[in-house]
Amino acid sequence: MKNHSSKKELMLLPILLVVILMCVAGHFLLQANFQDSNLVEYMLAALPFAMFGLVIVAFKMAAKNEKDEQSEQDS
C-alpha cells in the first residue's frame, strides 16, 4: 500500500471549492428573477463546460503528482 502526500492532495481542494461555488451560483441564477436575461442564459449554458474543464485540470494535476511520487519512490 502506498502512502500519499497529503500536501499534494490538498492542492486539489481549491478546484473542488470553485466547482461547488459554480454549482451553487448556477442554481441561484435559475431563479425566476433572472429568467429574461440573455447573458445569464449564456452563462448557464457555459457552466457545465467550465466545470468539465476544471475536472480535466484536476485530473492532470493528480496524474502529475502521482508520476512525481512514483519517480521519488524509484530513486
From TrEMBL:
Keywords: Membrane, Transmembrane, Transmembrane helix. The chain crosses the membrane at residues 12-30, 42-63. This is Asparaginyl-tRNA synthetase. It comes from Pseudoalteromonas carrageenovora IAM 12662. The lineage of its organism: Bacteria, Pseudomonadati, Pseudomonadota, Gammaproteobacteria, Alteromonadales.
